[in-house]
Amino acid sequence: MTVSEKILMKKLNIFYYATIWSFIIGICCATYLNLINFIINFVWHVLFDKLPVPSQALPFFICIPFGFIIGILIKRLGSYPLTIEEVLMSVKQEGKINYHNWWKSLTLGLISLAAGGSIGPEASTTVLGSGMVNWLGDRLRLIAYSSDWKWNHFWDTIVSKKQLKKLPKFSSLFKSKLYQKVFCLIMVMIGVVGAAIVFKLFPEEGLFGIHHRHILWQWRYSMYVIILLIVGWSFGMFFLWSEKWSDYFAKKITISPIIKATIWGIVLALLTLITSYALYSGEFQIVPFVHQALQISPLFLLVIAVIKTLSTNIGFSLGWRGGKIFPSIFASVAVGAAIAQFLPIMPVMCVAITVSASIAVILGKPLLTAILLILLLPIELAPVILVSAYLSACLTKVSYSFRQKNN
């Protein structure tokens, strides 16, 4: 075999290796999401279902002990799972994520979600997914610059840090950035196929997809858009304000993380006496909630929105960590449904504008907000969602500039 043939064979081996592991990574991510739902259902509807206590008392038997367990794990392992922002910051500053701590994010992420915390699975899923991708990149580097690599090393998941320090970066495996982007895109698509197979074989009730609904378009609706934008934008700012001050006060409270997490377990259980919507991320509650919302008084809808906001941010600051995207969407839907009862406008359009404005403020990325909500709300409202998200982002910039000038 000539040198050029050996080089070609090695490149093919790298491609095959990356393809198979990308497929496995997609399967692992989808399995983790299904596992979350299974564990939540097991804890809340199987394990404690036969307790001879009223349903209102059940959160006290679950949230408080789990809060104590979360506190112990935080004290021993640290604050996990990492947030999406922390993952992106790590990648931006160091060009990688420390995937050796993946089990910490997995453990604390699952326990906080199983306990009914008002957090989403997107944080721990991002950590696990990005960690596996980072690990695969390191494995490919080892294969590319190893002279004795063979296929019997396929299941070898150990990555030597000493070896990696001596090797070129991942980008050096490609002739150009274009080749690298195409390669990564292909691997992502293969991972999506793996995830899709799991969701097909083990379907879970989901809320994302292409939804259709007849929308009655009327020009008079435009006069109410500014009201809805301001309401949505204001609630988004309130959510961020709550996040900021929750972190501030949590840092000022110099007590053991065990006590902090346990206290939040008690508070969360107490909040369920007001509304059960204080629990969970709200991901699977959004659709049924929208159908019921117009039968709930506007004042109580606002109470639900505030409780959901505080439940998410204070709980996070006290150690019940996870994603905030789905809880923020749920809380914004409650605000949109409340304002819809006062305006002569289609409720679904009212909710769409309010939620788009709010989430654009919280995420700070109008395009991402639009893509996320288009998969959640009727596709016919896509132009409204997109425009509302960008107008809200513009309003944020104007507000920031105004504050800078006054300071």
Model description:
This protein has 407 residues and is an all-alpha fold. It is 70% helix and 0% strand. The protein is built from 15 helices and no strands. It has helices at residues 3-47, 58-77, 84-94, 102-114, 122-144, 161-166, 177-201, 222-252, 257-271, 286-293, 298-317, 325-340, 347-363, 366-374, 382-406. The longest helix has 45 residues, at 3-47. It starts with a helix and ends with a helix. The model has no long low-confidence stretch (mean pLDDT 84).
Index terms:
407 residues, mainly alpha, globular, 15 helices
State the share of residues found in helices, binned by percent.
55-70%
Shape: globular
- Whole-Å distance between the termini? 71 Å
Biggest pleated-sheet summary: none
Structural class: mainly alpha
Mean pLDDT: 84
- Stretches with pLDDT under 50, minimum 5 residues: none
H/E element string? HHHHHHHHHHHHHHH
Radius of gyration: 24 Å
Residues in β-strands, percent: under 5%
